[in-house]
Amino acid sequence: MYKSLTISDSLIGGLCREIDYIRQRYKNVSISLTISKDKSLRKRLLDEIFNLQNRREELIKISSSFYEYRETSISICFLYELCKRPLEI
């Protein structure tokens, strides 16, 4: 039992770190997008924003599945809350 708990905590922790990375990367790319004047760079930045938004949606679905299964777990509740936060500040 302890081993599966450690693995699941590690999984949830990894997903929490990933959503935090997505939020930080989104912020940096958005800033770069507002500054950039190069069309090619702007297209790549918009593509990256699109990919970050898609990955966030995937993480929302994953966290929702976990939340429906074990809504009493504080780590799952934390992941769910992190995923539901907007990317923009």
Structure report:
By secondary structure, this protein is mainly α. It has one domain. The protein is built from three helices and no strands. Helix 1 (about 1-35) runs antiparallel to helix 2 (about 40-70) and helix 2 packs antiparallel against helix 3.
> Spans with pLDDT under 50 lasting ≥5 residues?
none
Q: What is the mean predicted local confidence, pLDDT? A: 88
Helix content: over 70%
Distance between the termini: 40 Å
Q: Give me the secondary-structure category.
A: mainly alpha
- Order of helices and strands, N to C? HHH
Count of alpha and pi helical runs: 3
What is the strand content?
under 5%
Outline the biggest β-sheet.
none
Shape: elongated
Radius of gyration: 16 Å
Total strands: the figure is 0
The number of domains is 1
Topology (elements, then pairings):
Elements: H1 2-35, H2 39-69, H3 74-84
Concise structural overview:
The chain is an all-alpha fold. 85% of the residues lie in helices and 0% in strands.
Based on the model shown, name its key terms:
mainly alpha; 85% helix; 89 residues
